Amino acid sequence: MENPKQSLNHLKAIEKQAEDILRDKSEIVALDRRRNGNREGLRALKKQTNTDKTWFAIGPILVKVPVQTANKWLDKDQVTVSAEINKIRSDMKVKVNNLRDLEFQDPVPGLNLKPLDRDEMNAINQVMGGHV
Amino acid sequence: MASITAAKEQEVREITRIERIGAHSHIRGLGLDDGLEPRKVSQGMVGQLKARRAAGVVLAMVKDGKIAGRAVLLAGQPGTGKTAIAMGLAQALGADTPFTSMAGSEIYSLEMSKTEALTQAIRKSIGVRIKEETEIIEGEVVEIQVERPASGSGGKTGKLTLKSTEMETMYDLGSKMIESLTKEKIQTGDVITIDKATGKISRLGRSFTRARDYDATGPQTRFVQCPEGELQKRKEVVHTVTLHEVDVINSRTHGFLALFSGDTGEIKSEVREQINAKVGEWREEGKADIIPGVLFIDEVHMLDIECFSFLNRALEDEMAPIVIMATNRGITRIRGTNISSPHGIPLDLLDRMVIIPTSPYEEPELKEILKIRCEEEDCEMSEDALLVLTKIAVETSLRYAIQLITTASLVSRKRKRTEVGIDDVKKVYSLFLDEGRSTQFLKEYQDEYLYDQSAGGDAAEAMEVTVQ
Predict the structure, then answer these.
(1) CATH T-level assignment (fold) for domain A4-128
(2) N or C: which terminus of chain A carries fewer CB neighbours within 10 A?
């Protein structure tokens, strides 16, 4: 606090990091919305059997494309979106710990652990009296 | 946010502590500032500045994971706050670090051997931090549509619409999912989660926005907020289990039943070795963290020579907790031998320990402690009465004075007074003998008691055992 400029810089760094995390969070929401939209689209295409062409929205333009192509596009997009979400999630962990570091707090315990397998977790759940 | 939940957990822990160790229920921590300097009166701790400062250093080392596999001895006269310091240490460590508290004589049980009891206590003090990860779909049910096929044969199909505060989406359902939805009695307005891997549906409660749907709701209806953010979430939960708990699941097929019946019996050493190997494997794969916790053994002079040599060996193990012991004995016989040793602990073990001495409280400190205890026991005491009580504490013992608080407050309540006065304290002082007066009384009227051993050796010996 003796040095206002330094304190201000420090606060700025904290705000920046926090803002970054919030942005990531809304990014995940947007991506998940797209993922769910794609999923609904894929399902609708599967149900539609008698036509071999379908309308497809690319941005503001509607195009008529073969069902197979539409399927391929959607599938590809699904993979990209999932990968992107995973990437943001793992980056976010690092950012959260950075933020806590800036705020002079200890890192979240166990944040970077790898999860246990399903069988292993079932065994552990027995001890904790949770659902098996 | 995280700090709030942490604080809540701490509170929960405190409540269980109160029931177990009433005498130290007022302790909330070690009462140190950020620089580990002890404050005079803080978090229920009074005085003992040097000992608390030393305990603070130990605490910092525990937090850094530096002194795993070492021992600390708190030595001092009765009533000088040894147990209080250990409790404070436990509170300051937080909920995540395992802390096991036992009395030295607890190991003498008919059900299991001494070393087994010690091993269990040691393994209860080592935590394993693990993470559970599940992909779930979490949302509020907007609509469920179920279509039965017209022919009557074939499975049902349906649609489920879920929403969060940010988005809404529709899922096509197969007959199996519809079955579990009906089984869970899911209806519009419920907030549910679906586990992606198993397809298990669980109901979290009803959405707040639907709270006014019905006038009459059952008492078990739980209202929750509509979930935020994305629908498909990844939930990561970090658990801390102790090695002993992991041992228990693997030693029996019906693991968790054994945990609740309280009878775990002896656990085979092969099981323990397997667990150690597994946990070591997890640690190498980055799946688990080992947290060395704290094992506190009160009245450690009650352990015998076998236990001490076992402890000596156990402390060298790579997965050993920090062992804190407390004793109020001076140079005395080591149990199970005829050898005398300081604190009744063998010299080789003593050599491995960091010894923190506690010294008797001064009068102002005693007054402060009595004041804190009065608050803790919801007892209003007048200033004069407190002074008298402090004098009693100086002359007899602190424990006796603390016992007088409760009794005096009962007496004053009987007299329908709001505050405990000098009369009440005097009254209970005359009603209940302290240790000194009781001894005096016995000496005076010894020949009128039964089985008088004509004083001397035996009586004195018996006294030493009973007065702890």
Answers:
(1) Helix Hairpins (1.10.287)
(2) N
| CB atoms A127 and B241 under 8 Å | yes
Q: Which chain A positions have a beta carbon within 8 Å of B289's beta carbon?
A: 109-110, 113
Residues of A within 8 A of B197 (CB-CB) are: 118
Q: Is B249 on the interface with A (CB under 8 A)?
A: yes
Rounded distance between C-alpha atoms, residue B365 and residue B31, angstroms: 14
pLDDT of B402: 84
- Where do the H-state alpha helices sit in B125-206? 175-183
CB contact under 8 Å between B130 and A108, yes or no, is no
Q: Whole-model pTM above 0.80?
A: no
pLDDT tens-digit readout, A91-111: 999 999 999 999 888 788 878
Per residue in B361-418, pLDDT tens? 888 888 888 888 888 777 888 888 888 888 888 888 888 888 888 888 888 888 888 8
Question: Is B130 in contact with A113 (Cβ distance < 8 A)?
Answer: yes
Q: For the domain that residue B204 is a member of, what is the CATH number?
A: 2.40.50.360
- The C-alpha of B199 sits at a distance from chain A's nearest C-alpha, in angstroms, of 14
CA–CA gap between residue B162 and residue B175 (Å, rounded)? 18
Give the separation between CA B122 and CA B108, rounded to whole angstroms: 16
Distance CA B169, CA B181 (A): 17
Residues B327, B418 within the same domain: no
Residues B302-317 have a mean pLDDT of: 87
CA angle, corner B135, sides to B132 and B137, nearest 5? 135
Cα–Cα–Cα angle for B153, B156, B159, rounded to 5 degrees: 155
Burial class (CB in 10 A: 0-12, 13-18, 19+), B361: buried
pLDDT, one tens digit per residue, over B128-147 is 888 888 889 999 999 998 88
B429 within some domain: yes
Amino acid identity for residue B205 in this structure: G
For residue B154, the tally of other CB atoms under 10 A from its CB is 10
Residue range(s) defining the domain that contains residue B382:
363-448
Domain count, chain B: 3
CB of B230 closer than 8 Å to CB of A29: yes
